[in-house]
User: Fold these one by one.
Assistant:
Number 1:
Amino acid sequence: MSSKMQRRTALRRKLHILKTLTNSKSVKKSSIIMDAFLYIYKLKLQVEAIQREYQYLINHIQEVKVEKDGTRYVVRVTCKKGQDLLVSIFEAFEEMNLNVLEARVTCKHFFGMEIIAEAKGQDIDSRILTETILNVIQRPSGNGAIN
């Protein structure tokens, strides 16, 4: 007899927790369970929407920031991952006569890079450097095409 009471008490506690979590106003056990089901389904839809937004951001993020600090340039690049992107950016630096002093790269979810570079000859306008790097990261990669 006591085990039956313990099960009822445990069920009542669990239903109360479900009712509290889902802000259910229902009294009947079946209604509370249905409210919990709908609550979980709405949460699932929200997670899917966040995942879609995340994927969209990862695929469409493209940012280049160039700051000039005396004779040095601090360049931050954030964009979608691409084949040979790192090499292409370093080649662009070389073509512009910039000496890379330090570089930090990440490519877990997207390609991110921070470079500290110095001009070998004359100074370069920050806008030109920004445009050049933007052109590099906007080039189609892969497909065996030579850029």
Number 2:
Amino acid sequence: MARIIPILTLILAVVTARVAKSESPKEVLAQINKDSFGNSVLSVLQLQLATGGPVGEIQILLNNIASQLNGDQKKADKVHESDTVAFEKIIADLEQEIAYHQTQIVALSNLRDSTTEALGEAEAEVRVVTSDIANNEKSFADESATRQSQHETWVRKDAEHVDQMDAIDEASKIVQHLQAGVAFAQLKSRFEKVQAKLMESKHALFKPLINALTQLASKVDNKSIIKILELLAQIRQQLVASRASLLATEERQAANWEVQSGHLQEEHKRLVERKAFLENSIVQFKVTIQEAVEDLEDQTLFLEDAEDSLEIQERWAAEQESQYEAQTFEREQQLEVVERLQEVLTQKMSAASEFLEIREEVF
């Protein structure tokens, strides 16, 4: 029996190769007979049938072969099912990975583009802010110079008023001395100094006084003295009022400058802080863009690798499926041959002599 199993296997292989062509038994036997081992099988079968040996052994062997084929198919189905589940999981994981990389590429591209736009805006604003700072500093310098000029003018004019008031006071003292009876000769030196100082000022206010003092120098009389004293009092009062007006103007300009300079300094501080913020942002934008570009390159490579892996897995799955279908088809054909042989042995044993006759004719 052990020897008959490989013989039947050979028969199945030969018959399977001919099933699709629907060859006649004579043609099938002719193909088997070409092989020396097949020739021996036919001899054994012929002897088995000629001597009336039990056909049941052959039937048992055919049943075993059919059972083995069915068992092999079940194992193949189980492996195929397991491979299909594993493949589907691998495909799902790869598709999820591809979707992730695609999402990352879109996000990184958007980040790169939006950050590049923000970088351009920040660089443009830095140029504007830098110009604003320069204008602010120029305005501060110009206004500060104007304020300094105003203050120096006030100091000069205030000093002139003090000198003029001193000259008026000195003139008043001299006139009062003359009124008290002091000889003009004793006061002449002081008189000439005061007169010269008043003439140096070239102020229109002093012109009537200078004329009156000049007349007084040539002729001292009480009436002229009273008139001059009144004029001196009026002039001093005007000088005091003028000096007060100048002081009020100086104080007002100083207060205005304090407010204006405060605004300019606050604006300068704000602009400097804004520039520092923008410059820091520019550095961060450049770092972000560089990192986004590098990450984008990495994600692109990851995506390509995942797509390649998916293609390889799909090709492998297709090959496995094709191999599985081919092997399944082959087993189905073999089972069909086994079933036909079983049919011959169980239902057509009366045709045994016909087979022998066919073999005799072939040989």
Number 3:
Amino acid sequence: MQLTLINFFKKTVPGHIFRGKRRLVKPVSKKAMDTLTREYERQEQVMLLLRNPYLTLEQSSGHAKELQKRDKLVAKWTAEQTLRKMKPHVTIEERLNQLKIKEAWD
């Protein structure tokens, strides 16, 4: 009985509590503000690193030649390897070849 009376007179938001005209809006806390400030500072540091590259254009122009990455990539996509991974071509004649038993009526 006591719990029923408490729930009966309790003032709540009608419907979904976080949507609509009469929604429940959480107050902004100090912890949330600090978290958001740290996130913005971290994003700014990342953007600073992206704006100022580690290598200049002259330094980065030929650094991957010795690694031969392009040659390895081209070797990976040769026609032989691609065809080995693919299934062989099948024609309709090969599919229907099982229906040919004898052709005595020809």
Number 4:
Amino acid sequence: MVAKMASAKQSKEKDPADIVNQNAIHIETIKKENRSQKVYTLFSINPYKRLHILTDKPMAGNKTHDQVQEDPAFLRAIHRACLEPTKKYTHPQTESQEIGWISRPLIVSDRSDRRLNWSRQNSEITKYMDAAWRLKEQTQNQC
């Protein structure tokens, strides 16, 4: 029984730190991370997200922004992102866009066509009530 306790006590105690062994474990960990890691070297701004640009201070003496060449592909992507969906895509991308995708009227609107345009018509009683309401509003506003 005493022998078992002594061996259990020895297994609980750790061996002193071996630098070579720790370095090997560290190298293996880094290799595993590098295998699953993608390194991105080409960065650009997402053209589908709203961009908030902060301007320089007006009295700042640094004029480096005048010397920078503009990338035409980047400018096209930014301008395309600001367009409404009907100008960006040929077909609706979501079911919500299907409603109102074709916003052109089906027929040409002709205001002189009496079949489709029912303009407001006044009879004697409506003319009288309009005048009465106007008179009532004027008297209330004067008080």
